[in-house]
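Running this now, will post back.
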Amino acid sequence: MTKVLVVEDEQHLADGLRFNLEAEGYQVQVMDTGEAALEILKSDPAAFDVMVLDVMLPGMDGFSVMAEMRGGGQFVPTLMLTARGHPADVLKGFAAGADDYLTKPFDLAILIARIRGLLRRREWLTASLNAESTLSPASTTPTGQDVFKFGDKSVDFDRLELRVRDQVFPLTLMEANVLRYLILHEGKPVSRKRMLEEVWNLHEDTDTRAIDNFIVRLRRYIEEDAAHPLHVRTVRGVGYRFVAIPGKAG
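Update: finished.
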């Protein structure tokens, strides 16, 4: 049975989520603090298939919980609930490692659909782990896996993994989406504003520096020297440009 962890301190909302998710056939456990959620996740990282995490919690807020989870190597798919629908808050959640978000008040049917979407993604990833792949640049492999190889590095968008020689770095869904977007526009300058609109679907006036947080993390994985990047380059006054093979593009 699919197990859902709900982290919500508003009792009526937590009870409603439990009732409706159990009616959908899920097994639900509710925590009312971020600290309690982290404790149970640390004791058994594979205990849950998906998490619904409120941002406004007593003590440690949802952003901090999310960041600590991802920093500790826990990648349970997570939907964040927030009463703060400003794009900056949405980006903050994605930057912390969230896979999706929903603004309160929300339609229950939409929340359940979002959870199902995260679970489907998890199933696809699990299935892909059992499939052998032939790495090919900027293409889908014969096994159906979406893999891009550049130099001694490869990114597997199905598994959400970045391989650098003998090291494997797990990616959050949003990190993978940012990298995919840059790869699809290889060699071309891509503005921060355009990335906000086309990767996150945010069209309001938003602090574009949020994009930089993702770039910093990707550079730590990809670059030999993150201070002097060769693959993910800064285009001053514009944004970024991805270069697969340094030396072949400016």
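The CA atoms of residues 87 and 236 lie 24 Å apart. More later if anyone needs it.
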